[in-house]
Amino acid sequence: MKTRQNLVRLKQFQVSEKRRQLAQLDLMIGEFERMAAELELQIAAEEKKAGITDVSHFAYPTFAKAARQRRDNLRNSQIDLAERKEAADAALAEAEAELAKAEALESRDGRGRDAEERQAMHG
Q1: Which pLDDT score, from 0 to 100, does residue 111 have?
Q2: Half-sphere exposure of 28 (CA within 13 A, CB side)
Q3: N or C: which end of the chain has fewer CB within 10 A?
Q4: Reported pTM
Q5: How many of the other CB atoms lie within 10 Å of CB of 73?
Q6: CB contact set of 11 (below 8 Å; sequence gap of 6+)
Q7: What burial class does residue 11 get, using C-beta atoms within 10 Å of its C-beta: 0-12 exposed, 13-18 middle, 19+ buried?
Q8: What whole-number distance in Å separates Cα of residue 118 and Cα of residue 100?
Q9: How many angstroms separate the CA atoms of 76 and 86, rounded?
Q10: Splitting the chain (123 residues) into consecutive groups of 10 residues, what average pLDDT does each group show?
Q11: pLDDT value, residue 123
Q12: CA distance 92 to 18
């Protein structure tokens, strides 16, 4: 049955697309992590240079304040991406289950056709 084969191909495409999305989310999370770590180093260096670590101090370096804000924004984005990744993981599991069902249907239909063809040849 052509329609079953098309369904299996569609489900395979959906599974590969979900995997690609997961990989992209992982890449973005890793990149944000790297950027936040770089900002941490810059903040520490700026604080050391100024000799002030108290954010509320009037002479706290402006660059360090801005870097802290940017780092915090990156961390919030990481949290959002982690939530999206969790949802994408669930969507992938669902897509894989649908693919398995479609493959099982195609396999069952294929065995049924083979039996019918053998019976027609011997009958």
Answers
A1: 60
A2: 18
A3: C
A4: 0.76
A5: 13
A6: 95, 98, 99, 102, 103
A7: buried
A8: 27
A9: 16
A10: 82 96 97 98 96 95 97 97 97 95 84 54 56
A11: 53
A12: 5
